[in-house]
Amino acid sequence: MKKITIVGSGSVGSTIAYTLMVQGLANEICMIDINSKKAYGEALDIQQGTPFCHSCNVYSGDFSDAEKSNIVIITSGAARKPGMSRLDLAQINIDILNSITPEITKYAPEATYIIVSNPVDILTYVFCKNSGIPEERIIGSGTILDTARLRARLSKIYGINQRNIHAYVMGEHGDSAFVPWSLANISNIPIAECSSSIIRADGKTYPEVDFDIVEKYVKNSGARVILDKGATFYAVSASVCHICHSLMGGVDTPLTVSTMLHGEYGIDDVCLSLLNIVGKEGATSKLLLPLTTKERLALKKSAECLKEIIRSVKY
User: Fold this and answer.
1) How many other C-beta atoms are found inside a 10 Å radius of the C-beta of residue 36?
2) Is the CB of residue 141 less than 8 Å from the CB of residue 258?
3) Which residues carry out catalysis?
4) Residue 151 to residues 37, 40, 100, 233: CA-CA distances in angstroms?
5) Which of 65-98 are b and which e, b meaning 16 or more Cβ less than 10 Å from the residue's Cβ?
6) For labelling alongside 167, which of 36, 244, 275, 299 has CA 20 to 30 A away?
7) Contact, 283 vs 274, CB < 8 A?
8) Three-class SS of residue 189?
9) Residue range 81-97, pLDDT digits in tens
10) Cβ atoms within 10 Å, residue 217
């Protein structure tokens, strides 16, 4: 039996539940929300589509229904509104998370927790400090979505399957995130050499790529989607389901997710995204990539941006 509980049945939470069902990643999905009517409607809608996908019991409930969950996904929180600072949003969602934490951990103490609500790195940190759950079983979705956006963009530029593109976004899921371009490659060809090394059938080569423009595209993608359609939820849902697949499948997978740091790259007591090994036991180890001096400084800057917020909030 594979059971996943989702706390929060808004656009992100309900799309995650739907995607989990379609992909057949769970036998049982429990949806919990302060708006119980909304949770019931979302669960019913998804449940009625199971005859065409995978057998799965999808239902709404309260915190006690999270008992025996393998994974708990937390998506609850307020969305950032015009005129609201990141600090304001952080404190509001910290308070929401702290109201949820003792209720959910009481019934699902053995689950692995995936924090999706924003600011995700701050909330992952707060959950690590307040929940009593072992850190290896606390995973923030972090920059896994940013990494997907990066690979999708590079795939389009070079016309190469995304599975052959190895590039990551690290640090904060936010403004201070960065791409360690020194490590990016396509089929073991360093990304800086791809324009001259990939020869097309018509004999032409690809133009030189401005990595700064690509990085800005990745950072601005979420805002662009929100501007055009009001919210982002498909790509983040696919990303979270990929984390679930790694946890449920038991095959250790490198993912850029947010976890607590304890001296890695000289950084301590903050959650941000490095390359983590994720498997059935959670995020059990980190891959310390050989970053350049400039990239190490970018990572430390990202950590300090997050610590500045942590020092300014009550948790």
Assistant:
1) 14
2) yes
3) 173
4) 38, 36, 34, 18
5) bbbebbbbbbbbbeebeeeeeeeebbbebbbbbb
6) 244
7) no
8) strand
9) 666 666 788 999 999 99
10) 13
Task: Tell me which H or E stretch contains 53.
Answer: none
Of 296, 222, 284, 292, nearest to 254 by C-alpha is 284
pTM: 0.95
* Strand locations in 183-233 (E): 185-186, 189-190
Asked whether 133 and 105 are in contact (CB, 8 A), the reply is yes
Q: What amino acid is encoded at 161 in this protein?
A: N
Type of residue at 90? A
Q: What percentage of the chain reaches a pLDDT higher than 90?
A: 83
Give me the amino acid identity at 173: H
Question: Which tokens in the block code for residue 188?
Answer: 């073991």
- DSSP string for 91-132: HHHHHHHHHHHHHHHHH-TTSEEEE-SSSHHHHHHHHHHHS-
Look at the chain and count its residues.
315
Give the model's pLDDT for residue 84.
Answer: 63
Q: What is the DSSP letter of 83?
A: T
Phi/psi of residue 95, each to 5°?
-65, -40
Single-letter code of the amino acid located at 3: K
Measure the CA–CA gap between 72 and 28, rounded to whole angstroms: 12
Q: Helix or strand or coil: residue 3?
A: strand
